[in-house]
Records
---
Amino acid sequence: MSHARISPLNPYAAQPQRRPEGYATHRMRPTGWTEAESRKPLRVWLNPAHGAALLALAGSYELVWATTWKDEANDWIGPHLGLPRLPFIDWPQMHGRAPRDTFWKTQYVLEYAGDREFAWVDDDITDMDREYVDQRHPFRTLLMRIDERIGLARPDFERLAEWVAA
């Protein structure tokens, strides 16, 4: 079974104060969000339709959180989307140094995938990440960069469905 990391579910870089159509605003206080950073809770935009779209993929993918929120994504994000508790990548070090100018998560996503094919969706994937994975992972992969101003859209879900069916 393939693995998918789905992010960003929250199009956090959309025009300030302009919630994208179909999204609802949620206020959250995950562990990493402290009073020192803001007196207000973190604003997160989530599209409830994404839960059903992800669950439709779950027959072909094992859905896995690959977020800095780690298991807290199951408490703060999953319930708003109607998702069950999902496994997560427990980063040994977050925001640390990464090999060859890759995103810091890349090495750990690759380690988590092991000897399986996988799809990974993130807003920080670059060509360096694709090259790094291609050189080190002999199995089929799909690394999709999602625009953090837009978030996941129907064509992204279609691409994931097409890739796993191929």
Note: The first strand starts at residue 2 and ends at 5.
---
Amino acid sequence: MRTVRAIVATMALSLFIAPSVSVQAQDMAVAIQARYEKLGSFAADFEQTLTHKESGSVEKRQGKLLFKKPLLIRWQTASPREETLVVTGKEIWNYLPEEEVAYRYPPSLVQDSRSIIQVITGQAALNKDFEVKPEGKEGGLSKLRLFPKEPAPQMVEAVIWVEPETGYIRRANILDFYGNGNEILFTSFTPDVSIKASEFTFAPPKGVEVEDRIESKVPEKELFQ
């Protein structure tokens, strides 16, 4: 017998599946969170587009993201430059092979709902920390605009595109205080995959300089950009 909670979650998700049903924005946020509460892990390939408002420059990147609850992350950028980000409950490692340097940060830097990694992994508290505005469909995906109730420099506005059939976020665009954009598009997405624990560990290669910022509240550079 299904529990009441499971039934409520199923009903909430059905709001995405039936486009003829008129729903409130918060109901849609609840539907997304209900789906991600059931998700234990995922693996995804991504394309990232970074836009700089002042200069007009656009940079495109490709890579792979591994996620496992509660918040274990391996973010591997393959091109145009290699970069590795590993997030655990104790620390964050940011390794830049070309610069032969690895930065170590406290995990608190990515635990805020306004962090892009919280948004694209479905861990942001959408129905608590954001005002949510539905914007119909785009490319077959449900489009929602998010306004943080307490804006921060790294996020003043965001847009997410959600797969109606599953409730999974397939694309997100984060706008910072300066008008710069950080868009992530998942070109593949595999939920509830088995991921080795070793994927969420990092040891700096021999000869690599380690910059320890574990006591810092400000990263050397913006993470996941």
Note: Residues 52 and 122 are 25 Å apart (CA to CA).
---
Amino acid sequence: MGRKKTFDEHAVINAAIAVFSEHGYTGTDVGMVCERANIGRSSFYNTFDSLDALFLRALRDYTSSGIPVREILRTGTAPAPALIMDRLGGELSKQCEDDNRVGCLSANTAAELGREVDAVCTILDPDRRAWLESYRIVLERGQIDGHIRPSLDTEVHAELIHSVLAGLRIAARVMPPDSVHAQATAFIEGLCTPEGLTALHDHTPPHRYGAESPGHLISTESSAQ
């Protein structure tokens, strides 16, 4: 008879995502995950076989969490510049709320491992393609609405959005939050027509951070959807 589980597998995956995001693939060991998840080593190995298997599972679950966000980009009714700002500004603000500012597991993994591990690439590559397609769709809709510059190459700028967010996520680990958010705003403003600028600022209230605790977001309103 199989052993009965005494822990929530989903909670262990979330703990693993947090540890891998903070310490990286090479900086994490089984003991760190067990400690964060409050489980024993025997329970770990009875479920996940190896740390590598857990890492791939955590990365796969982490990337799948972006599916509903991509759906908002594809079908959201807010102006395209505001949807893109929600994506970049929202993710960066969430990261800056975290005292450790560990950021994105996908971006951190790409920065650490590059294309060294085939199994990682089989997860990150289709995830990246899905994000690029979503960015392209929202940019093209913005062009039709007159909010995104008509001369802009939507395929190239979809890749640029993805790259800028990844870069700012890395920068946000050490940079003052207001500076990170200002850079995201300046980038998105560069995509806009004059009408798009108006739509962007009408739908995107400013983010404010506490001066005494620069990593702490004290007031962020949701953009209109």
Note: The longest helix spans residues 118-145.
---
Amino acid sequence: MLDQVVDSSLIFSFKTILIFLVIVILEAVLSADNAIALAAIAQGLPNLKSRKYALNLGLVFAYILRMALILTATWVINFWQFELLGALYLLWLTFNYFTFQKKEEDHHSSQSQSLWQAIPSIAITDLAFSLDSVTTAIAIADDLWLILLGGTVGVITLRFLAELFIHWLEEYTHLEDAGFITVGLVGVRLLIRVINTDFVPPEWLMISTIALLFLWGFSKRSSETIEAHKVTMEDLEIREHEERKKISS
């Protein structure tokens, strides 16, 4: 009797939902570092409209690449060359940001890049970041459709998180630096995994390090944001004072 209950379709459905929730949570957690990296790339475009367009189109291509990665994952993970390419690409992005772009006086000098440079960068960066999450999802779930659905939710979550980070990048001074340091850390982790899996740092250490980087990234607001906030507060105080005068009169 107990065996029949355990093997019933109801329990199987509950198990499927539980695994799906785990995959979604995993995608949401792992999307944070990915989102700030994509936001930092889109931040290099000159206006909000082009940034949104780059994210939308870039993540469409990213979705196609991620689905292709999931469908071929059992074959791909046997070739260390894919992880090596992903690691080198992420390290190149970090090196490019901290050398060439940092030489300019303007902190946002990356705005010289074109829309058609940003779109493939967004797609390829997401693919490199996806190597870990796809491998983990395959280890958790056996059903391909479940992994594909989890990946779809991950890309949708990533789209909204990236747009939020674009707003924050303009507000917080260190957040863009924190984003590219995160890109470099993921690249180093992939490179270590190619060299020797025994030396790969544990997941909790990686997440803790990225969390500390995020705290540093949000630690200082830009002077322009502070001034704008002061002006807003002054306007509110003036309005309140005028309203009190009207009431008293």
Note: Residues 1-11, 107-112 have pLDDT under 50 and may be disordered.
